[in-house]
Amino acid sequence: MENRAQWGTRVGFLLAAMGSAIGLGNIWRFPATAYESGGGAFIVPYLFALLTAGIPLLIMEYTIGHKYRGSAPKSYATMNKKMEWIGWWQVLVAFVISTYYAVIIAWALMYAFYSFGQSWGSDPTAFFVGDFLNLVDAGQIGGLVPKVLIPLVIVWAIVLGTLSRGVKKGIEVANKIFIPTLVVLFLIIVIRAVTLPGAMAGLNSFFEPDWSRIADPNVWIAAYGQIFFSLSIAFAIMVTYASYLPRKSDITNNAFITGFANSSFEILAGIGVFSAVGFMAFQYDTTVAGLAAEKGVGGLGLAFMVFPEIISQIPGIPGLFGFLFFASLVLAGFSSMISISETYVAAVSEKFNISRQRSVIYGGGIAAIISLLYATRGGLNILDTVDHFINSYGVALAGLFEVVAVAWFARELKNLQTHANKTSDVMLGSWWRVCLGVITPIVLGFQMVQNFTSELA
Ligand code: PFF
Ligand code: NA
């Protein structure tokens, strides 16, 4: 009777969900956010956000997908006809993100190969924006950059090829290969990093708690923001992935496993990144704080400007550390990219009643064409702007619409709780409804206001 595609195994679903969660956000977003938000003291708002919003929302999205068995727009529409647009809003946000996420993976792919010869020379920053991206000034435009275009085509071919093979043979198989490989590569990197001279100083400045920061509301907003992005919540992804769960699946348990696996990877990344930064400070005979202030320890800058410098200085087999680092970015990126793209592939195929393959061609094809915009000589400037708006408004709004609609408009939390409890031996209590109906909307609303006022300031 049920002919909806399904995961082959429970582990398959878990690896796919972890694959979506574990991404660039863990590797270059978390370490910098934690460092700037109180170091070791960040653990308090972070765990609070994980337990009051991250995992509760993950449970909610898994339950919605599992109960209504549809992509995000269809699942929300089944809950309440007036809510279909929330799913489409999330699908749209995911679509936009996928257009530039692909480009970043393409860069990392090139850099994995550049690592062997340290092609970035003695000035990686100049190399990145000059030789590699051929960047023009903001406001100007320029033609396609072949060095970016070629890996970009490869990235789309792999992502769309995987998606067209379906849930079990495509997404599940890819994650079963990518995620275990990623964990092994990343462990090697972290072990190498912590044994470098200066690593301990790096770790000390990362973990050193600045308790005074806990009084700053912005630190709490940063914690919630990190958790949302990192767990791929409010992007239509987890609803879509959970819609392929077999009827007998322990939803609540799976959500806790996904949440803790993602956070573990995040902390591991913090250890790796700050050991490496400590090593760089040691090489330059400066402090970690000084280096962080000068170069920054997050985002594109960390990956494509700071890390190349570190890689060039690491003793041992030339380029191996660099290759492993960029290969990790590629693997982490691919598994997230597959999940973002699956949201619109699934939504379009269901809405217009077309096959998955067709939907991959239309949805994925259009996304791929749009992504060429970022492979032009002005691409980085466009990417920065789009990313800023998506992160400040697209995501927070998507989350806010979602919880308010489910909790207060459809008043569905009780039913979802009953549904989740039927499947699990971890029982959800009223705390779960308080987290979703009260705490999360307040935090997201506050975050929106804060983003908006900082824009005007
Ligand atoms: N959760 C991913 C990370 O932490 O890097 C990022 C991400 C993936 C965000 C997929 C959004 C998304 F749709
Ligand atoms: Na993550």
UniProtKB/TrEMBL annotation:
Membrane topology category: Multi-pass membrane protein
Domain of life: Bacteria
Subcellular location: Membrane
GO cellular component, one term: membrane
Protein name: Neurotransmitter:Na+ symporter, NSS family
Pfam families in the record: SNF (PF00209)
InterPro entries: Na/ntran_symport, SNS_sf
NCBIfam families reported in the protein's UniProt record: Na_transp
Keywords carried by this UniProt record: Membrane, Transmembrane, Transmembrane helix, Transport
Chain ranges passing through the membrane: 12-31, 43-64, 85-114, 148-165, 177-199, 219-244, 265-284, 323-347, 359-377, 389-410, 431-448
Organism, scientific name: Salimicrobium flavidum
